[in-house]
Amino acid sequence: MTSTRTMVVERPTTGYALDSGPILVIPGTATSARAHRQAATARKGWSLRARLVALLIVTAVLLGINALLGGMPADAANLQPQPGEVVVIVQPGDTLWTLAQEAAPQLDPRAAILQIRQVNDLPDSSLMTGQRLVIPSFADLP
User: Fold this and answer.
1) Is 99 exposed, middle or buried (0-12, 13-18, 19+ CB in 10 A)?
2) Is the pTM of this model over 0.70?
3) 79 is a domain residue
């Protein structure tokens, strides 16, 4: 005489959009195999899908950080000032406009800003507090 046993197995609650609650498992049936796969996946921790999503999120964050850091202007610490040039450390509230007006009050600030950007290899007018800038000598200009 063969006996058929039935078991009640709790559904894994993480990583699945299934109904919560126990499921009826009859050994040797498709339901039994599915329940064992689900239980095994729940024991392993993160599912493959969850791992892939986490990997994509981490990759996106790292690419974003790289884009931010890669887009930063060159630091004047790597640039060697020429005779007559001055290295300035950007303070809170400093802009290229104010630095250009202080360095070359006799010039149009736009022309001075262009020269400062060229000397420091700046892609735009953005400055960060603590950034080092080489200010060229404007003494020989009219």
Assistant:
1) buried
2) no
3) no
